[in-house]
Amino acid sequence: MREAHERKRRECSMSFESVPGQPRAKRFLQRLVMNGTIPHALLLTGMKGIGKRALAEAFAKLLNCLAPSPAGACDRCASCTKIEKGLHPDILRVVRDGAFIKLDQVRDLRERLRFMPSEGRFRVVVLEDAQDLKEEASNALLKILEEPPAQNVFILMALEPQMLLPTIVSRCCHVRCQPLDEDWIARHLAATYRIGDDQARKIARLSFGSLDRAAWWVEADRMDRLRQVLERIARLKAASVLDVFSMAAAWSKESEDLEQDMECIKFWLREKIMVGLEGSGDPEIFAAASAEATGRLSIEALLELYQAIEETARRLRQHANRQLALEGAGLKIRDLLNGKSCRYTLSKWGQSLSF
């Protein structure tokens, strides 16, 4: 796991010019350095696969570059070269140990912060997946952020700020990262995976702006997976409560990546909603996935169904019990498919969709 993480780190170690997307975030971080208003802690938030790690690496380079320019780090000096190779002693990375970032990891970090940076102007602590801090680790990190050591900059990365302690968020300069442009993802896929332009565009549309999700769709026949997931949803309509619980138990054991299953459903619902609102959407997607799952639900009901799936995905990201999360979602979806609940309106939920 650590080898895979190190490989991914090397792939995204770059200057601002090479970081895909995120124009506003890059301009903001460049201004911080140019104006000398560097915060002691940054919080980069957004979905996986949109370049948060690359942005953090580029900012760490710029802070310690020996020949910086308005565009960012030079990528040639001794400092940049060491950061590129993962050898700079003042760039510390904290990643999950298993499913969580644990108290011992934060304690080890605190010990290393007792000393001044050995080479760079700043020691940069890059803490990935901050939403996976265990409670005691969060409290220990908060104490560090409350009295940050001089010449240390913390870069936290998380999916959503709500997944962190509010007191941690309040001590960080929050930078919201945006989904990547679908056209850029399509070009990247065509060049990297040597697939046709049409297939690349289709997968880019499925990605929701995430390069990780795009790669997930490329690496196997995910359309077949989408069909299987939607068949499960369709069966919920006529299911009893016991049937729902039985289906949830089976699903939780069979699927290796329930979050991606939820993304499959969200994408398909998004396409159906787009058709209902604008008459747009990809007809081939509908040819590949049975429409029986949602029948003739209204736009409002589809939006509520989308929210139910999003809530389930959120619970799974927070390491909720997989079976319990699916049981709750299954009962909610069953009611919606049978027209028993339609409390949400387009004005309330429409803005939450990634159109």
From TrEMBL:
InterPro entries: DNA_pol_HolB, DNA_Rep/Repair_Clamp_Loader, P-loop_NTPase. This is DNA polymerase III subunit delta. Keywords: Nucleotidyltransferase, Transferase. Its EC number is 2.7.7.7. It comes from Desulfoglaeba alkanexedens ALDC. One of its GO terms (molecular function) is 3'-5' exonuclease activity. GO terms for biological process: DNA-templated DNA replication. PANTHER family: DNA POLYMERASE III SUBUNIT DELTA, REPLICATION FACTOR C / DNA POLYMERASE III GAMMA-TAU SUBUNIT. Pfam families: DNA_pol3_delta2. The lineage of its organism: Bacteria, Pseudomonadati, Thermodesulfobacteriota, Syntrophobacteria, Syntrophobacterales. It is an enzyme of class 2 (transferase). NCBIfam families: holB (TIGR00678).
